[in-house]
Amino acid sequence: MKILSAGQTRIVDAYTIEHEPITSIDLMERASQAFADWFTLKFSVNKDLLVIAGSGNNGGDALAIARILYEKKYHVKVYLASPQSQGSDDYAINLKRLPPEIKRIEQLDFNCDIIIDGIFGSGISRPVLGELGTLVDHINSSGKKIVSIDIASGLNPDELPAEGSVIEPTFTVSFQLPKLAFMLPENSPYVGQWSLADIGLSKKAIELQASNYHYFTKEEAKKIVKPRLKFAHKGVFGHALIIGGSFGKIGANILASKSCLRAGTGLVTSLVPNCGYSVLQTTLPEAMCITSGDKHLVNLEIDNLSSYSTLGIGPGIGTNLETLSLLLTLIKGYKKPIVLDADALNLISQNPELIELVSKESILTPHVGEFNRLIGKASNSLDRIEKQRAFSVEHQLIIVLKGAHTSISHVDGTVWFNSTGNPGMATAGSGDVLTGIITGLLAQGYNPFDAARLSVFVHGKAGDMASAELGEASVIASDITERISSAFISLN
User: Fold this and answer.
1) Residue 310 β-bridge partners
2) Consecutive H or E run containing 160
3) Integer Cα distance of 306 and 308 in angstroms
4) What is the Cα–Cα distance from 6 to 323, expressed in whole angstroms?
5) Nearest-10 Cα torsion for 176, 182, 37, 74
6) Domain of 269: which CATH number?
7) Residue 1 lies in a domain
8) What would the pLDDT profile of 417-426 be if each residue is shown by its tens digit?
9) What count of Cα atoms within 13 Å lies in the side-chain half-sphere of residue 69?
10) pLDDT digits over 48-72, tens only?
11) Do 280 and 416 belong to one domain?
């Protein structure tokens, strides 16, 4: 699913109006009905609603929504944020359509259950200051649930918030496509829980718009999953080598190796130091095991390294010089895409010349701290994404930047944001699980970029299932591993 800029969305709107064809007021009605459909599923009719409408097209949406919800028996009153303004043509039409029975209040009061925010839409290009800024501040301090139409008033859909006031909604119902602003951590207070409402914009017009940003959904994930044929055998599904663990951190390798198997890999071999041999063989009998070193991994020549379908390197390995030597041997000696995580990334950060030895289209999975060490600190999340894109293009590597909407950058500079996951996944070992899943799909012959996107989706979906069952605060990494199979089943 594409993420379009405000300017591109206006082009798509205009194309839809011209080529469907449909009048702008009828398209507004369709959008308002879609919002109302979402609202009626979310809130019962015994709610008192305050609809606050600006004088632009977002205000026109708000007035149409007020009328539709009134007709559905909600208790509705309307406050016009700019009563002296003539407003847009479609705003004026919907103002005339407003039933006289709907109370129009001239003095703002918050004697309601829910506020519907329709002051400004995605076309805003200036900070909200002055009287309207004060209005926004009063709404935010009301203590009421707020639902924003398309986007919170005052929030630029393509940017981070600047000066001025911005609505802090409980919910945002976005029309047709998500906004880039929804993906940026700094904007979280100005988005709340967001949903999409399909308003029937032209699919052709959307396809014609070029975008570097996309949103990875279940529909895209389902297209990637490979079926397993009846007469397949374990050799068909690849042989992954997971390199990880050190004294006190053998669990990181176990989490990655078990997740690699849960992702469908035919064979998994785990390389651990000697101190991890017994615990790995006992805990994960399905994995084969080789060892190197005593308490941490040291260099060794692995027989038939190229026979492995892929390598997953990094969980819990530490940053010892001997481990660095092993890492150098592996990335010099293996010429297919691999997965690099955790201390493998930290070792490369300390020895940046190693990045040029990593096979093209390999997958790197940093969290923000590792990203800062590897690629450099950013002034904000938008700047970080641009650094991520540039790094992928320059080095022809796939970067999985882990976070609330994990971003996956392709070697062509496009970025896909993930649609699954929750704060319960912010727990030790969660990243090791993801490394295992990605390594597993890569071992099975998935295209590296597809392996990265699908793995992040499945990882997040498994985390969502764990949180739904156990509660966000109680999820541990192995809970995610145990639900990988259910996450894949959900894509059937």
Assistant:
1) 240
2) none
3) 5
4) 49
5) -140
6) 3.40.1190.20
7) no
8) 999 999 999 9
9) 34
10) 999 999 999 999 999 999 999 999 9
11) yes
